[in-house]
Design brief:
The chain is built from 2 helices and 10 strands. By secondary structure, it is mainly β. The chain has a single domain (about 15-149), classed as Sandwich (Immunoglobulin-like), CATH 2.60.40.10. The chain is elongated and about 50 Å long. This is PROTEIN DOWNSTREAM OF FLC-RELATED.
């Protein structure tokens, strides 16, 4: 039994992370999700981790959103001091090709040394903008302004 414990201590355990998020269509050109937001099935996303000092790419993995616009990717390694981001790669929709400024990437922390108990990491939603706002958006955005005052 002692040999088994020693063997386990000698090799690192495999505790994969699961990165989850969603990709949306900014149908109102609002810069954020609204009640008119739709989600993109088949959008390509990537997780990239870079060395904090040199900015060299250390890890990269691509995934695709499901029918609800959500993605889930497994990352096997602990990326300790590296900077990791989810980012938009492409949209399958011709009417949503331009990434929304400031919503085209999301930072994720992929280390066990940060107090998180769960191995699931949730990335902020990322979005593509419509070429033109859909009908009803002016009224919707006006409602948001009323609540802001």
């Amino acid at each position: 039994m002692a040999e088994l414990t020693l063997a386990r201590a000698a090799r690192p355990g495999r505790n994969p992370f699961v990165v989850q998020g969603s990709v949306y269509c900014d149908t109102c050109l609002a810069g954020f999700e609204t009640s008119k937001t739709t989600y993109i099935a088949g959008a390509k996303v990537r997780v990239e981790c870079r060395d904090r000092e040199t900015q060299d790419l250390v890890y990269s993995k691509e995934g695709t959103t499901d029918s609800t616009g959500k993605y889930s990717m497994t990352v096997d390694e602990d990326h300790k001091d590296q900077i990791c981001d989810c980012m938009l790669v492409s949209s399958p929709r011709k009417d949503f090709q331009s990434p929304s400024a400031g919503r085209d990437r999301a930072r994720v922390i992929l280390t066990n040394n940060n107090g998180h108990v769960s191995a699931t990491r949730y990335a902020n939603s990322m979005g593509f903008m419509a070429a033109q706002p859909m009908s009803g958006c002016t009224e919707l955005l006006r409602l948001y302004q009323e609540y802001e005052d």
